[in-house]
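The authors assume throughout that readers already know how a fold can be written as discrete tokens. For illustration, here is how one protein appears when written out as sequence plus structure tokens.
>
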Amino acid sequence: MKMISRLLIVTLCLAGFGVYAGTPDFPHLQTTGYGEVSATPDMAEFTVKVVETTMTAEQAKQTVDKVVTDFLAQLKEQGMSDDNVSSSNLYIAPQYHYPKSGQPELVGYRASRTVNVTVNQLPDLNQYLDIALNSGINQVQNVQLKVKEQAKYQEQARQAAIKDANAKAKSLASGFDKEISGVWRIDYNAPNNQPVLMRSMAMDARAESNTYQDSTIVIRDRVDVIYKLD
């Protein structure tokens, strides 16, 4: 028991030291800066899926494979690069009926495959979606508008976050009759969230070809800063 108690005391001391070591022992203030940039999307990614249920696994496989093969062939005919298309492996699962009494009854097999497509020219998005549906694809799972120069907009959002943090720090310091004498610590984690679509996609019925209007995405960033005060 004495040994356990000593180990516990040592552990608590070390933990306390770690907390103390991470806290500045001088006057300071901490701010969080936020930045965001609005951008007009110029490309898109979408995911479609074909799902079929038949009496046998072989029938389900053949039906799904044929739909995906036809879709991929039509994409290639339209000049779509293989690098912009990826398809999943076939997934087959037995389907059962569960009566109130008795054993489950096998009623068929469900097969599915998904296809991911990157569209480098946003005006072509509707065309490729139409091709998917006409090929027998029966589910559109996700359509995401994006920008090609993501890194450029992310840098702009980051610089806006830095300016925001500095502005808040100066305002707070001035309000308490203090001055900022430097930066003690900067905490930054690259955001892993996707840009946010701020307005819904709408079709322009007046145009001869379908276009997207009022579509804006917002790219955000943040930074945490601890400043030294005089």
User: Anything to note?
Assistant: The radius of gyration is 28 Å. Confidence is low (pLDDT under 50) at residues 1-21, 199-210. The CA atoms of residues 1 and 7 lie 10 Å apart. Helices lie at 2-21, 57-77, 125-134, 150-175.
